[in-house]
Amino acid sequence: MSDATEVATIPITVDFSGGLEMLFDNQRRHSVALPAAQTSGKPANIAFLIDYLCKNLMKDPRSDLFVLDGHIRPGILVLINDADWELEGEEAYEIQPRDNILFVSTLHGG
Amino acid sequence: MRPALCVNCKTERALIKRPKNHEKLCKACFIAVFEDEVHHTITSSRLFSPGEKVAIGASGGKDSTVLASVLKTLNERHNYGLELVLLSIDEGIKGYRDDSLETVKRNAVQYEMPLKVVGYDELYGGEDQVVETIGKKGNCTYCGVFRRQALDRGAKMLGIKHVVTGHNADDVAETVLMNLLRGDLARLSRSTSIVTGDSRSEVKRSKPLKYSYEKEIVLYAHHKKLDYFSTECIYSPEAFRGSARGLIKQLERVRPTAILDIVRSGEDMARLVPGESKPSCACKGQAPGALASAEDDIGGCGSQNGRTPGNEMAAMDKRLRENEAHEGLEIDVAKAMSESKTGSERQRELPIRGGHGDSKPRQVLGNCKRCGYMSSQDICQACMLLEGLNKNRAQIQI
Ligand SMILES: [Zn+2]
Predict the structure, then answer these.
(1) Any bridge partners for residue A67, and if so which?
(2) Chosen from A16, A20, A106 to mutate, greatest number of chain B CBs within 10 A
(3) pLDDT tens digit sequence for B56-97
(4) I need a labelling partner for B217 at 20 to 30 A (CA). Which of B170, B190, B370, B373 fits?
(5) Is A98 left (phi over 0), alpha (psi -120 to 50) or beta?
(6) What is the ipTM of this complex?
(7) CB nearest B218 (choices: A77, A83, A89)
(8) Parallel/antiparallel/unpaired status of strands A83-84 and A76-80
(9) Is the pTM of this model over 0.90?
């Protein structure tokens, strides 16, 4: 986490719904400047974003409601520009500028 | 990666990958297919009759909101001739459910349906302390028992004999799994029928979304931009239910068809139980048949976070379980309805044990000595729970 000014970032929007907004300051939409590359040098992908959100955006200590064993908690849907992430390569999808990533929980309230 | 095209219309970009068959669909085709499948479930199980008044158990959550939206759409599209009413239960807990009720009120306007809100105070005689205690102490068990009764009673107040709830395939699979793990084939059988109810109360309950994946319900709500409310339920599910739910979600991740497969397995096992109904839909293959789900055990509030409950809740659950083992409140309407079935498929007679290995005779339905609600016990489930709560409170106060 050194010298953030030199880090190239990708502007994206991240949405939370279905109850997940509770973990993120009760706010549904967040504008995020995501580092364009991971520490390994690989381009930022969804797995990196999830880790980034846990470390930088989550206001709630209950990260297990979002991530289990290093992966998105089963029962949470991920939509990349409104498409199911299963159609886009899931965690490996490389994030593009102005992407919208939506995390929606199916686990809350009938 | 080039975006995949919809396998149906072959023109639009696919946005959905269906868990049941991996089909890639665009938004419009997905919405159409989702609605068609619910329509198929409704018609093949002859869920409704023309002119019927139907109350939709509405919580403002995703399942009941989708149910209301789909039923309105199908009722108009296929001329079911239904009179649809939203029926909502107000637990009377300050701060909690306020937003849910507000959502239901908006839904009533959006779907042009009358809304009836029934308060616990109305049902349980304005005993504020009791109402408050139910709210504070409750878990899904309480939620389920009280809300089920409340829906029945609310429907009766409206003169309605049919309540539909938003229980989905994930809920049914969870219940099948729980009964399987308990070795309770008799209840497993009842828990798979699409229609349940009580001949005495004359209120029939059904689950038109029985074959709909929770995932698709959420996606339907998302793509149709439905107005629903998500809250973390203040009731935590018992540990066992939480585990079953977690397992189902994990299975779905590796093998999405698992959820409907569990539901179908439950239905197949139900057919082995002597005296249980056969499916009313003979469809095999991709379209899900409208087979038989019961409510016995289907979670009350639908909010499953898999939290660990206290021992107290486990003990309460055990008492309930023992109570329910007497073949309590539930009587299978589907069974009565399918009496004229053909005997083409011979049923195997298997010795079916109850969940507890004992074979108490089926009890006669009577009325609860406290509240007068129909019950196979001297004291109904709701009153038993209240008694337990009061005992606990007394202990705390000492
Ligand atoms: Zn299409």
Answers:
(1) A72
(2) A106
(3) 999 888 999 999 999 999 999 999 999 999 999 887 665 566
(4) B190
(5) left
(6) 0.93
(7) A77
(8) antiparallel
(9) no
